[in-house]
Amino acid sequence: MNGAGTGHRDPGLQPERTTLAWVRTAMGLVAVAFLCLRYVPGSSVMVQVFGTWAVVAASAVMVTARSRNERAVERLEAGRTVYPFLHVLGLTVTVAGLAGVSAAVILVVGW
């Protein structure tokens, strides 16, 4: 903690937990995307596009998780907090799109 009373109280563990949470989220998304690509009936281009999109999005999250959280800690120590709105929105759209495409294909095929 710096002399001004602001600063990150847990410089080691909290960023590590946050990074691990993002990586777990991405791994779960990859698992669901692969299951969707493998088990959703039919070989729809829409399923392949959304499945591939989910895998690419999750891979990007895993590759950038540590550096994003290091930057977040630096901002926190400087007294600025920034919510990762675009990252969360991107993952939300990805998961919702994957679920919607899976549900649509299942309804169409009648699984």
Describe this structure in words.
- It is found in: Endomembrane system.
- The chain crosses the membrane at residues 21-40, 46-65, 85-109.
- Residues 10-71 form the DUF202 domain.
- Its main location: membrane.
- It is a single chain.
- With 111 residues, the protein is an all-alpha fold.
- It has one domain.
- Helices cover 77% and strands 0% of the residues.
- The protein contains three helices and no strands.
- The chain has helices at 13-39, 45-77, 85-109.
- Helix 1 packs antiparallel against helix 2 and helix 2 runs antiparallel to helix 3 (85-109).
- The radius of gyration is 18 Å and the shape is elongated.
- The model is unreliable at 1-5 (pLDDT under 50).
Features of this protein?
111 residues; mainly alpha; 3 helices; elongated
In total, the number of strands is 0
> Helical region count?
3
Q: Which shape, going by the Cα principal axes?
A: elongated
Q: What share of residues is helical? A: over 70%
Q: Strand-residue fraction? A: under 5%
Pfam family, one: DUF202
Keywords: Membrane, Transmembrane, Transmembrane helix
Transmembrane segments: 21-40, 46-65, 85-109
Protein name: DUF202 domain-containing protein
Quick take:
Residues 10-71 form the DUF202 domain. This protein is an all-alpha fold. It contains 3 helices and no strands.
Which helices and strands occur, and which strands form pairs?
Layout: H1 13-39, H2 45-77, H3 85-109
Helix pairs in contact: 1-2, 2-3
Protein name: DUF202 domain-containing protein
GO cellular component, one term: endomembrane system
Domain DUF202: 10-71
